[in-house]
Fold this protein.
Amino acid sequence: MSQNWAICVGIDRYDNLQPLQYAKHDAEALRDFFEKEAGFEKVYFFAEEAPPIPADFGEPLRAMPSGNTLRRFLRIRFEQPFLKPSDNFWFFFAGHGRRERDRDYLMPIDADPGNVEETAIAVSYVTERLRRCGARNVILLLDACRNDGARDGQGIGADRQAGVVAVSSCSPSERSYEIADLEHGAFTYALLEGLRLQGESNCATVEKLDQHLRYRVPELCGKYQKPKQTPYTVAEPIEKQHLILLPARAKASDLGPLRLDALQAETNGDFETAEQLWWRIIAVSPTDAQAHDAIKRIALKQPAAPAAGGARTAKLPTRLSRRQALAAAGAVSLAAGALIAAPSVRRQLNRPVLRTMSFDVVTVDERGARVSSEKSTAAGFTETLGPGTGIEMVAVPGGSFTMGSPDNEPLRRRVEGPQHHVTLAPFFIGAAPVTQAQWSAVVLAHPRAVGRNLDPSPAFFRGVDLPVETITWNQAEELCLRLTEISGRGYRLPTEAEWEYACRAGTAGPFHFGPTITPGLANYCGTGGAVCGDSNGKSIATDVYDGVTYRSGAYDQGPGGICRGTTTRAGTFPPNRFGLYDMHGNVWEYCLDVWSDDYADVPLDGSANQEGSQGDQRVLRGGSWSHNPAICRSAYRDAIDPTVTGWQGRVGLRVVCTV
């Protein structure tokens, strides 16, 4: 069974910096959670007037969080490994942080803001020392920067900490805030909430905790009239997003990505990593037969230490004879062979190699002025379709969100409610709508129809990097079926809940950019009216769409814009926080769901609604280049018959992969 050890540091009264109110309280609260609720084996607590820390030998150590004390403790305690690779070590810091000469620093109680490099503690040094403990998993929780910030306006969080999970309380361009009504920092309050959640809405994995913090912290800051604060999580390597932080709170549904990581590690010959991942699965599900079989199988593959005379013997489970282990491994091999023959399992084992992508995320105020531009990261892979052609797929973490729009959202429609809570499993989604080059590559690679024929070049606006459009829902479904057969992975259209969850990316307003939108952020009709442009040689410009009159080309208090009259290539405009482009405007995107007039009776698990109210009509999302900005909102939804293409040049698709 894995152990959890931790260090908690909280500093209120600085010698040379503005005092804080609740940093020590935050550290105390997290210490108490670790010790009393999560059952951690050991928690070291550093704060003003904290009791001395017992030493393994010699005199107890003072717990005053000065630079010398913290450095000495990190140097001496972590000189030799004392934990197993399957264990976790947590480090929580509440106090001031600084960004100095392109490095992140934590400010101890006696730090000199005029001499940061010598008196503060580099986060990279903390990471290097913690990794010496022997645990393969180190989790940094940094509620730093606070409301003092750095002189250049940047907080910590920009550094990449190799081999660890680093969760910063705010993005590097923001500050971190304390909330008097809560007697906590906003980050730590939300962190404790998330760690205490149980059931399907738990935050037992890194990606689920990250999703909770990205939603909850801005919500708290908005409620208590604080400026925006967005937590920032970086997992290195990216597979650590699937790390089970608190096995006691995890559910069986949280284990799917971890199983795939374990299988991939074993396939790549990284037996040590694979074994640790399987033990983590056993910590959540002690009777998991697949995990126990895998442990036995790996034991036979790993070489043991040399025996007498230089011979090497196989490493075997302590309770099994060699004959029993071989028999068990043989049974597992036969079962695995049978499973691999099944297409659905073949797709599971064909897990793509993920990479990390970095990008800038833009936020605007109610008038469309940019208020921040922050760095974000996402995991993803490329589905190769041929030389120079592939579909970029982005990993969307599982989590919960509120679907639909509130009653007070400008130009809201009844079909966007009632708002309801949806919980989704992780999935991969296209970073952008499918392009004409990608569509043609799929059709040429798989010319035989699965269910219907496809035109390899159906678009009205021609350009290999432009979205494919003027296609039917049935044709979009056919492309997904062919892509599945080509790749060996499961491809389909997104469900309506998946689409909105991916579009919002942790936000709750009309657009993922903020309360309004500008022509520099998306491709839509900003010149007035509901719809602009022509279709099949005839003008379809109108002020009325679906019974609603739209006269202004601006949304709410935002600026007016332009009508480009054509589609634009992916990457023209900034992505959202998941790394997804063109979720607002450009082309409408098909969803799996059958249309319903409202959300009164829809699935709450992110699956497609198949009990529609309008025959076989399918859901459209996102708006297009020719539609009013209000029609391009996150919550706006429309319907279309699956056999028609819609207006010329306006309807395309984005794919989801169920690896």
In short: Confidence is low (pLDDT under 50) at residues 148-154, 304-349. Residues 247 and 511 are 36 Å apart (CA to CA). DSSP finds 14 helices and 29 strands in the chain. The longest helix spans residues 322-340.
